[in-house]
Amino acid sequence: MLIQTVFLDAGGVLVNPNWSRVSNTLTRHGVTAAAAALAAAEPRAKKRLDTGDLVSATNDAQRGWRYFNLVLTEAGVTLSDATASALAELHAYHEQFNLWESVPDEVHPALAALRARGFKLVVLSNANGRLRYLFDRLGLSGSLDALFDSYDEGVEKPDPRFFQRALERTGAEAQSTIHVGDFYHIDVAGARAAGITPALLDVAGLYPECDCLRVRSLTELVTVLGEDAGTGD
Predict the structure, then answer these.
(1) Is residue 164 within a helix (H) or strand (E), and if so which, with residue range?
(2) CB 229 within 8 A of CB 2
(3) CA 8 to CA 182: how far, in whole Å?
(4) Which of 42, 135, 155, 205 is the most exposed place for a label (fewest CB within 10 A)?
(5) CB neighbours of 97 closer than 8 A, spacing ≥ 6?
(6) pTM for this model (two decimals)
(7) Cα pseudo-dihedral 177, 181, 186, 190, rounded to 10
(8) Which fold has domain 5-14+104-227?
């Protein structure tokens, strides 16, 4: 069956942390870390989090702030009271506005191209209840057909119930749906458990052993799905 629906993760796929905001906050607390260095370190930090044991033993909120410590460590920053204070300030900002507020240049053109081909576009994100507000603020909501925030649903990836709920509410079928995410043990494992075709967005090429579709960009995803024009019928 041809792909008709594209499920997309939010963080790491459509939006990224505002590394300039992170860098500036660290600076105010006496810690030097360039935004570019943090962004470059981020894929390696995510890979360290992406283990089956860790994912099964934690929830998204617990992983989220461990993730920032790993980013700092991978960027060569020594963890300290100052970094903890900076992250606490960033956490407060995230709770109100959502720190994942940087939209990669490829996102809007890729979403437009997928829609032009007839694909239904649905976001499934482990988030904090502020995702819809964030997407409205960033001008992304109009490019999507539906958005599901785990905080609102009371269930999060990799639990297949999250995916199944999105399928039911959007009228999509698992067999004709692909889910694109950036964590193997959250996105790929969860999609597979729900009978959905998984795809891993591996921007830094850190998953050569990946046993599913692997793309380095959303632009590449558009190319791969180019022959699977979603007709919606």
Answers:
(1) helix 160-170
(2) yes
(3) 10
(4) 205
(5) 130, 133, 134, 137
(6) 0.94
(7) 0
(8) Rossmann fold (3.40.50)
Distance CA 82, CA 67 (A): 17
DSSP letter for each residue of 36-77: HHHHHHHHHHHHHH--HHHHHH--HHHHHHHHHHHHHHHTTP
Please tell me the distance from the alpha carbon of residue 215 to that of residue 205, in angstroms, as a whole number.
Answer: 9
3-class DSSP state for residue 4? Answer: coil
| Percentage of residues in the chain having pLDDT higher than 90 | 92
Chain-centre distance for alpha carbon 130: 14
Closest alpha carbon to 209 in 7, 50, 38, 11? 50
Say how far apart CA 83 and CA 69 lie, in whole Å.
8
Angle between helices 60-74 and 35-49 (to 10 degrees): 130
Q: Are 51 and 207 in contact (CB under 8 A)?
A: no
Q: What is the tens place of the pLDDT at every residue in 149-182?
A: 999 999 999 999 999 999 999 999 999 999 999 9
Q: Give the pLDDT band (50/70/90) at residue 57.
A: confident
Distance CA 201, CA 10 (A): 12
